[in-house]
Every structure is written in structure tokens, then in C-alpha cells.
Design brief:
heterodimer; A: about 800 residues; mainly alpha; Methane Monooxygenase Hydroxylase, Chain G, domain 1; 2 strands; B: about 100 residues; 3 helices; elongated; disordered N terminus; transmembrane (chain B); Mic10 (chain B); membrane (chain B)
Chain lengths: ~800, ~100
């Protein structure tokens, strides 16, 4: 290897050397690259060594800085010495002088500094926690909000700023709270059971208070009937004992008076009626007031249950409470039928009644006339017959009436039961008529036996007379004597007195009995009235309670309905809410599921695609391998061919007989190789004259001779004398064969001169080291250089050509190496 | 080896220069001699000094000419060839590199 043993002393030498090195650098890449690198590195290293050893910056700067462009591309190898070449003149930047003199603060501000630092630290900590909470937006934040009181407001404020900016939203699914929406308003609106009970009891009390003052109208009727019975009883009692006409009459009068007194004792019907209506009105008022109080007591519900729906305004009172005691509607057809039947019966009945009444009246009047006629006698058969007939008539008619009346009564009872108390209007008339008839009939039956009484009375009188005055019995009234008459008169007077006494006694008895009876009856009546009243009261109370119950039930029903309705609404709202939440949840889960599904599917997809791709790649690779194999075989063949041809060319180049044909053949062989193309172009365009080594050698000897002859001539202005001198010198210097260069590569650049160079080159050439020879030849200076110039060029060209062809051969080798048939 | 139209190889330049130099010098010397002879014969009464002078002048001129010719590489074409060589090298390197 060629290297510089010593530095060149002279500037020019250095320049020359660097030029040479540069030139070597710029020759095409060749096996000599290593040489060049070594030449570069070694001079460089030596340069630096010298520089560092000597520490003479002048030369170093001259070589290093003056020619940076040369040194820069040269340094291919990493030279550890080179690193030290970094000029130490650069002062490294001050390291870490940036620490501020914090600790060097004055001692006076130490305390204040402490406080400041503490404050900063605390604010920093708070800000950090807030920021983290805001960022995390999860359990940490919740915890913070729960522990520190006003942090939620602060964080909420931050949220308002941050959410629009960063587009952050609260998580989609909130936890479904366990709190069920409030149903309390509905519950509040329902009046409690106690309240309802209270109200009901209030109503009951008022109605009871009213009812206590209410007399019954039917009791009046009952009382009247009982009075009638009493009257009839007394009448019967009276008739048993009354034999005489006047007595009977008086008795009847007395009875009548008694009856009247009884009737007066009874309460007044009109007043009763008035009282009844008044009481009824009172009850109604009380009921109304009760209703009002109930209504007011119940609160109104108004739209607290979420959206107020239009359907329901007042859930408690959909409508007015029903009227109290509205009777259930009568089944109309039955009612109509009954009414028709009753009407049907009424006409004949009334007629019958009228007939009976007239008959009875006739009879009574007849009898009355008979009774009042003192001159009636038992022998008047006509009148008696008439009376009997009349009585018969009356009786029959009365029986008829009773029959029809019974029927009527039955029908009426049915009617009243169906109409629940409604009284047929005809009933009153019928009743009146019947009463009158009854009265008349009783009198008629009573007076029916008048004749028999009279007969009996006369018979008894006669018998009495006969017993007492038997003597007088058989006498006619005209035969009676004065004594007889007196006796009779006395008897009669006695009898009369007795009778009068009897009458008086009887009267007293009768009055007593009547009084007693009246008392009894009154008591009875009272008892009855009370009973009836109680019954009625009970019934009305029952009715009222029933009505109240029904009303209450109705109300309750309504309340329940309202409550149900409201609950249904709430339930709907709840279910809707739940459904919403569920649907949202479901949607979110579905979305997540779909996302996961997509992920999985894409993963699988990618997997499959990867597999497919790998297999396809393998397939392609196999195909390519096959093709490459074919290609390589092809190329191998070509390469062989090329190699042959390259060898051919090389030989020709060496021997100097290339022709265009050869080059064209190459281009035909491998039309596609770029490298070969380049080389081929180069070879083709090479205009240098065709030489070969022999020629060059010959020329070299010639050149050498000449160079020796002009060795002293340098670049300056030389005269002919110098030429002569150099020629003389050449004659004197003995040619020295120097093969040392072959052993030791070191060239002392300071001791180079023409003769040594020529010697070296000669030895190189003799050993076929053309490159070294060329390098050395280029070191010639002055006139020898000019003389050798064309030789140098030609040698260079020749060497280049040779190199190109060698490259070609090498390339063909490289191609062909892998494709040689695998034979042993 | 060398075609007549080709530019000379550098080693032959030297020989050719010498040839030229010699011939030129000889020519000049001869012509100087001749002129000297003529002058001496004509003007200077056959004194020998114009001959010598002429010869000397001729020789000197030839010498100077020769010298000048030998110095000429540093004046013209040779540097150009250097440059050409440089270019050649450069193009070669660019082609192959």
C-alpha cells in the first residue's frame, strides 16, 4: 500500500499530493479503493498526529482549514484521532448556569417567602384536585362533592364552561333511582276512611234529629181506624144493654159524642199533615246541608299528578252526588199493568160502593124513621118487610163490596209494594167511601134488629106485667081500674126509676168504661203510635242509613274510581318512564353489542385476510422463485455468454484489438442489464486511442529516457542551459534499479524526484502494477510531467478501459456464479 | 502508432521541439552567417566581425527562440490538455460512478 512516510515540506508538494489523492479519489471504484482509503486515512492520521504532537496550529490550519473541501470527502474511515481534532478553541456552552439564585435570597424575606410558598402550594393542590375531579368526572368527583360542601357548585360552574368547549356529556344511562315518583298527592286527596265515617255519622245524626220530630202520617190513619174500632166496640157494648128507643138513641148520641171526643183526642190530621211536610222539608234540608258539608270536607284535587289531563278536572267529584233516597225505578211494565188493573177495578168498585152506600143509607134512614116514629108497631109488616128487604139489599151489596174491596186491597198492596210506598190516588177515595159504607152498614145491621128488639121488649114487658100483676094481664087497657093503673103507674114509675137509675148507673159505667176504653185505646193508640213511629223512624232511619250507605258507597266508588284512574295514569307514566329508560338502556346495550360484534367481526375478517394474504404471498413467492429460477438459469446462460465475451474483450483490450463487433455482441446478449449498459456505453464512447500494454511499456521506456533528460527543468523560466545541464546530469546519474518500493510502500514525499519516481515506476511496471505506476507517474513535476503527460493519459484510459471490461467480467461472474449448473 | 492527424503525444513533443529548435537555430545561424558574410563582404570590407556577428545573432536568435519554445508549455496549450485531462477524468468518473 502506498502511503506517505513523511509530510511534504513544501506547500506545493502538499498541494500536489492532495491533488493526487483527490484524483485517486475520483477514479471509478476499483479494487484500488482500499488503497485510496488507506492513503487517505494514513496521511490524515499522520497529519493530525503531527499536528497534535507539534501543536503547531499553522500547518494544521493550513491543511485542515485551508482545504476543508478536500479533507471532508476524504475522511471515510472513523479515525479516533480525528475526534480530537475538534478544535478546542470552541468554548463549550456554560453548563447549567441557569439555576436561579433562589437560595440566595435575602434573609429578611425568608418568612414571607415561606408564607408565599405555602399559599402557592395550597392553591396548587386545590387547583390540581379540582382539575382532576373535573377531568375524571367519576367516583373521585362524586366523593369530592360529597365531602366538601361547595365543591359541587364550583365543579358545576366548571362543567358549564368545559362541556361546551370539549363537548363532554354526562353518561348516557343514569342510574335508575330507587325513588318512585311521588303518589302522595293522590293519597292526600282521598278523604280518609275516618273522615268519611265521621261525615256519615254527622249525616246520620242530623237525620235522626230530624226524624225524632217527625210524626207519621200513616199513624194517623191507623189511629183513625183504631178509633173506629173502639167506637164500634163501644157501640156494640151499648147495643147489648139498650132496650129502649130513647135510651138507644141517647146511647148512640153518647157514643157519637165519645167518638168525637176520641177523634179530638187524636192529633189533628191537617196539622199532622203540615207537620209532616215540614218535617220532610227539614229532613231534606238537613240532608242537603250534610251533603254540602261532605262536599266541602273533601278536598279538590287539581293537576299535581304530573301533566293535568283534560279528561279529569276534579278527580273526587265527577258529578254531583245523587239525590238522597231516590227510589229505584219501578219496572214500568208491571207498574203500568197494575195501574191498569187497579183502574179497571176502581170503576165497578166505586159503583158498588155507591150502591152499597145508598142501600145502607136507605135502610138506615128507613129505620131511623121507624125508630123516630113512636107510633110504629110491630104489626106494620110492610114497613118491616121493607126494612128487611132494604137491609137484605144493603147486606148483599155490602158483601159484594167487601169482596171487591178485598180484591182491590190485594191489588193495592201489590201496587204499594212495587211502588215502594206510593199510594194509588184512588185508594183514598175508595177508603173514604168504604168507611162511610162501613159506618152505614154497621148502623144498618145495628138497626136491623130494631124490630126484634121492639118485639122482645114488648114481650118482656108483657111478661113482667103478667108476673107482677097477673091480674092485670088479661085485661084490656080499657078494663084497667084505677088501682090497677096506679099499681101500673107505680110499677112503671118504679120501673122507670129503676131504669133511670140503671141508666144513670149505666151511664156512669158507660162513661167510666168509655173512659177506660178510651184510656186503654189511647194507651193502645199511644203505644201503637209510638210503635208505628218507632217503626217508621227505624224504617226511615234504616232507609236513610241505607241511602247514606249507598251514597257513601257511591262516593267511595267514585273516590275509588278516581283513585284508580289516577293510579292508572301514574302507572302509565311510570311504565312509560321505565319503558323509556329500558328502551334507552336496551338501545345502548344493543349499540354496544353491535359495536363489539363489529369489532369481533372485523378482527376475524382481518385475521382471515391476513391468512389469505400470507398464503397468497407464499404462492406468489413460490411462483416468483420458480420464475427466478428460470430467470436465473437464463441469466446464468447469459452470464456465461457475457463472461466469455467479456474475457474476449478484456483480452482484446489488453492486447489492443477491440472492435465494435464485440461490444455490439454484448449489447445483444444482455439487453436489459443497466450496469452492463453503462459499462458498455462507457466502452463504446471511449475515444482514447487503442493501446495495449506493450505499447505502453515501450512508450514508457521512451518517456523515461526523456524524463531523465529533462529532470532538472521545472515550472519556472528555464533556459537552454538548464536543458543542457539536465541532459548532462542524466548522463551522469546511473540508472538504479530500485525494487524496494515493492516491499515497503512508504514514500518519502520529501525525497521524491524524477529519478526515484522513474525507478519506482519502472519496478512497478516490471511487476505489472500499473495503478501504482500511474500514481507515481503523476507525482512528476515540471517538464518531465509534461513529457509524461500523454503517456499518463493513455495509461489512464487504458487502465479505465481495462477496468471497465474487468467490471464487466466480474459482473458476468457475479451473475453467473449462482447459476452455474450444479455439477461437481 | 500515431496517425498524422492526431495530436502529438507529449513525449514526442520534446523531440519535436528539439528538432524544431535545432533546425531553427541552424537556419538562423546559417542565415546570420550568410548575412554576415554578405554584410562583411558588402559593407564592412570583408572583416570577419559581421560574419561572427551575424552568426552570433543567428545563433542567439535561434537560442532564444528555442528557449522560448521550450518554455511554451507554461504559456499555452499544454495546460489546456491538463484541463482536458481533468475534464476527461471528471466525466469518466461521473459516468462510471
Amino acid at each position: 500500500m502506498l502511503r506517505a512516510a513523511h509530510l511534504p515540506r513544501s506547500q506545493s508538494a502538499a498541494y500536489n499530493f492532495s491533488l493526487v489523492t483527490k484524483r485517486w479519489q475520483q477514479t471509478p471504484a476499483s479494487p484500488g479503493t482500499g488503497i485510496t482509503a488507506s492513503t487517505k486515512s494514513t496521511p490524515g492520521s499522520h497529519t493530525t498526529q503531527y499536528a497534535t504532537n507539534n501543536s503547531s496550529s499553522t500547518l494544521k490550519t493550513q491543511t485542515a482549514t485551508a482545504r476543508p473541501s478536500f479533507n471532508a470527502p476524504i475522511d471515510r474511515t472513523n479515525n479516533p484521532n480525528k475526534t480530537t481534532n475538534t478544535p478546542p478553541s470552541y468554548i463549550p456552552p456554560p453548563s447549567a448556569r441557569s439555576s436561579p439564585p433562589t437560595g440566595s435570597g435575602s434573609s429578611g424575606g425568608g418568612g414571607g417567602r415561606m408564607i408565599k410558598s405555602i399559599i402557592y402550594g395550597v392553591t396548587l393542590g386545590l387547583t390540581a384536585t379540582l382539575v382532576y375531579a373535573e377531568y375524571e368526572n367519576g367516583p373521585f368527583r362524586r366523593q369530592l362533592e360529597s365531602t366538601i360542601p361547595y365543591s359541587s357548585t364550583v365543579l358545576g360552574g366548571l362543567d358549564q364552561v368545559i362541556d361546551p368547549v370539549f363537548g363532554r356529556q354526562k353518561p348516557f344511562t343514569k342510574e335508575i333511582t330507587d325513588k318512585i315518583p311521588d303518589l302522595a298527592y293522590v293519597k292526600d286527596k282521598i278523604p280518609g276512611k275516618e273522615q268519611i265515617k265521621k261525615i256519615g255519622e254527622q249525616v246520620k245524626d242530623t237525620t235522626n234529629n230530624v226524624l225524632e220530630k217527625l210524626p207519621d202520617k200513616t199513624t194517623i190513619k191507623k189511629a183513625g181506624e183504631s178509633a173506629k174500632d173502639a167506637v164500634s166496640n163501644t157501640y156494640h157494648k151499648l147495643t147489648d144493654q139498650n132496650k129502649a128507643k130513647g135510651v138507644v138513641d141517647q146511647a148512640t148520641n153518647q157514643v157519637k159524642d165519645a167518638v168525637n171526643t176520641v177523634r179530638e183526642a187524636l192529633p189533628d190530621t191537617a196539622g199532622l199533615k203540615k207537620g209532616l211536610t215540614h218535617a220532610k222539608e227539614q229532613v231534606q234540608d238537613a240532608a242537603h246541608t250534610v251533603k254540602e258539608t261532605v262536599k266541602d270536607a273533601l278536598p279538590l284535587a287539581k293537576g299535581k299528578s304530573g301533566e293535568p289531563t283534560k279528561k279529569i278536572g276534579d278527580p273526587m267529584f265527577l258529578e254531583e252526588a245523587g239525590d238522597m233516597g231516590v227510589p229505584p225505578p219501578i219496572p214500568e211494565d208491571k207498574y203500568k199493568k197494575l195501574e191498569e188493573e187497579i183502574n179497571h177495578l176502581f170503576a165497578p168498585l166505586s159503583k158498588q160502593l155507591d150502591d152499597a152506600l145508598t142501600a145502607a143509607r136507605e135502610h138506615v134512614s128507613h129505620m131511623k124513621t121507624l125508630i123516630e116514629n113512636p107510633n110504629i108497631s110491630t104489626s106494620d109488616h110492610e114497613t118491616w118487610k121493607k126494612a128487611e128487604h132494604l137491609q137484605e139489599q144493603a147486606r148483599t151489596s155490602y158483601e159484594k163490596v167487601t169482596d171487591t174491596l178485598r180484591e182491590w186491597k190485594n191489588k193495592l198492596i201489590e201496587y204499594t209494594t212495587t211502588t215502594s210506598g206510593q199510594i194509588h190516588p184512588e185508594e183514598k177515595k175508595v177508603d173514604e167511601k168504604y168507611q162511610e159504607l162501613h159506618k152505614q152498614y154497621t148502623t144498618s145491621t145495628f138497626v136491623k134488629n130494631f124490630r126484634t128488639y121492639i118485639d122482645d121488649a114488648t114481650k118482656s114487658f108483657q111478661k113482667e106485667i103478667e108476673t107482677m100483676f097477673p091480674s092485670l094481664a088479661g085485661k084490656n087497657p080499657t078494663q084497667l081500674t084505677h088501682e090497677d093503673l096506679q099499681a101500673l103507674l107505680v110499677h112503671a114509675h118504679r120501673r122507670i126509676v129503676k131504669l133511670q137509675n140503671d141508666i144513670a148507673r149505666m151511664r156512669v159505667n158507660e162513661s167510666d168504661s168509655v173512659k177506660a176504653a178510651i184510656d186503654v185505646q189511647r194507651a193502645d193508640i199511644d203505644r201503637l203510635v209510638e210503635q208505628r213511629v218507632q217503626e217508621r223512624v227505624a224504617k226511615t232511619a234504616e232507609q236513610l242509613t241505607d241511602e247514606l250507605k249507598s251514597y257513601e258507597k257511591n262516593l267511595r266508588q267514585q273516590f275509588d274510581e278516581q283513585l284508580k284512574h289516577e293510579i292508572v295514569l301514574q302507572h302509565q307514566a311510570l311504565t312509560q318512564y321505565l319503558a323509556d329508560v329500558l328502551s334507552r338502556q336496551y338501545q345502548e346495550w344493543a349499540r354496544e353489542y353491535e359495536k363489539q360484534l363489529d369489532n369481533e367481526s372485523t378482527k376475524i375478517n382481518l385475521n382471515l385476510q391476513n391468512q389469505l394474504r400470507t398464503t397468497l404471498d407464499r404462492l406468489h413467492a413460490i411462483e416468483q422463485a420458480i420464475e427466478a429460477n428460470y430467470d436465473s438459469q437464463e441469466r446464468g446462460r447469459k452470464a456465461q455468454h457475457l463472461w466469455i465475451q467479456a474475457q474476449n474483450i478484456l483480452n482484446k483490450v489488453v492486447h489492443g484489438t477491440t472492435t465494435e463487433n464485440d461490444l455490439d455482441v454484448i449489447s445483444k446478449i444482455v439487453p436489459n442489464e443497466k450496469f452492463v449498459q453503462v459499462l458498455f456505453n462507457q466502452l463504446k464512447t471511449d475515444e482514447s486511442p487503442i493501446t495495449n500494454e506493450e505499447m505502453l511499456r515501450e512508450r514508457f521506456s521512451h518517456v523515461k529516457k526523456l524524463c531523465r533528460r529533462v529532470a532538472l527543468i521545472n515550472d519556472g523560466h528555464n533556459s537552454l542551459w538548464n536543458y543542457f545541464l539536465s541532459y548532462f546530469q542524466s548522463l551522469l546519474i546511473v540508472r538504479q534499479r530500485d525494487d524496494s518500493i515493492l516491499v515497503d510502500d512508504a514514500i518519502d514525499l520529501n525525497q521524491l524526484d524524477t529519478f526515484t519516481i522513474l525507478n519506482y515506476v519502472q519496478s512497478y511496471l516490471e511487476h505489472n502494477q500499473w495503478y501504482n505506476a500511474l500514481r507515481l507517474m503523476q507525482l512528476l513535476t515540471g517538464e518531465p510531467k509534461n513529457v509524461a503527460q500523454s503517456w499518463i493519459n493513455d495509461t489512464r484510459n487504458y487502465l479505465a478501459k481495462k477496468q471497465t471490461s474487468e467490471l464487466l467480467e466480474a459482473y458476468s461472474n457475479s451473475i453467473g456464479l449462482g447459476t452455474l449448473p450444479r455439477t461437481a | 502508432m500515431t496517425t498524422p492527424n492526431r495530436s502529438l503525444a507529449s513525449e514526442e513533443v520534446y523531440g519535436e521541439k528539439w528538432d524544431r529548435c535545432m533546425t531553427d537555430t541552424m537556419v538562423k545561424a546559417a542565415s546570420g552567417l550568410a548575412l554576415g558574410i554578405v554584410f562583411s563582404a558588402v559593407l564592412f570590407k570583408r572583416r570577419p566581425w559581421p560574419v561572427f556577428l551575424g552568426t552570433g545573432i543567428g545563433l542567439g536568435m535561434g537560442y532564444g527562440n528555442c528557449q522560448n519554445d521550450f518554455r511554451s508549455p507554461y504559456v499555452h496549450s499544454q495546460p489546456l490538455t491538463l484541463a482536458k485531462a481533468h475534464e476527461h477524468i471528471l466525466t469518466k468518473s461521473s459516468n462510471s460512478g
